[in-house]
Amino acid sequence: xxxxxSSLGPDRQPGNPLLATEAVRDAAVAxxxxxGLVGEEISVPYRTGWERGKATTxxxxxxxxxxxxxxxxxxxxxxxxxxxxPVFGVERAxxxxxxxxxxxxxxxxxxxxxxxxxxxxxxxxxxxxxxxxVRRAVADGPAVFLFSNYVWSQQGNLAISAxxxxxxxxxxxxxxxxxxxxxxxxxxQYFADHPSVDVVVxxxxxxxxxxxxxxxxxxxxGDLRALGDVAGITFRPRPGQAPVTTAERDRxxxxxxxxxxxxxxxxxxxRNASIMVTIxxxxxxxYGCTFCDxxxxxxxxxxxxxxxRVFDEITWAA
Length: 318
Description:
- This protein has 318 residues and is of the alpha/beta class.
- The chain has helices at residues 17-34, 40-76, 100-111, 134-137, 154-167, 186-193, 206-216, 294-298, 307-317, and strands at 85-90, 121-124, 144-148, 172-176, 199-201, 233-235, 244-245, 282-283, 303-304.
- β1, α3 and β2 (121-124) form a beta-alpha-beta unit.
- α3 (100-111) crosses α7 (206-216).
- The radius of gyration is 22 Å and the shape is globular.
């Protein structure tokens, strides 16, 4: 197998996380070639594809930086907060894809009770909060931080959560998503291991988040005992106390009651960006794969969004 060029530009600099993956893949292909399991006709396209993939990654990172700058300009033009508590949805993926799960939470909260929550909270469309930018996020006082945990984002989310509590102990940190523990024992261990987490949302989060924010009422003082009547969560009543799990919340029967983050302006910062979007056409799955949350989480039942809504979101993305 021909050797790779020794230098491929700035992306070869030490510390680039792509290098570790590249080394593993190169070693795997070399081993397959040595065993005669693949030939040069396979290894050459592999190398070409890898170079294309790296170029694509560089373009995505460039677009992400441009989008962050665009969002910063948008934030500068926003009206004064006027005493409202800022709410941030934290997206950890290093690309320019709008975070549909977090966007749905924002859209639902802004529409809840004819917009009543917007008098208490400022839903900030700044999705690229990082540990280094937390200080700016809490500069005016405690804030609410929403995290959606997946395999690729959970550790980063926990790092940001810890930084939030270090700088602003009364900020409200809420975790949800498929990688957030939901079974007895696992839930309690999660809170024991991560004292920076205040609330964990189980299942669909739109209605739950609205109710949590409504009960909190914009008062961030570390006292969450009033959340005991909010279904579908595990929460820490006060700092240092053992977590409490509330009653299970039913799944949302009519998905069309959920406003679209694309069609309500939540994702307007992405309107002129070169992006890829996630369109949610249904929830649930008829199967029960052990490695996936969907089937077991929804009891293999499928609920669908109205097809016209799906078409309208695709048109927005186009």
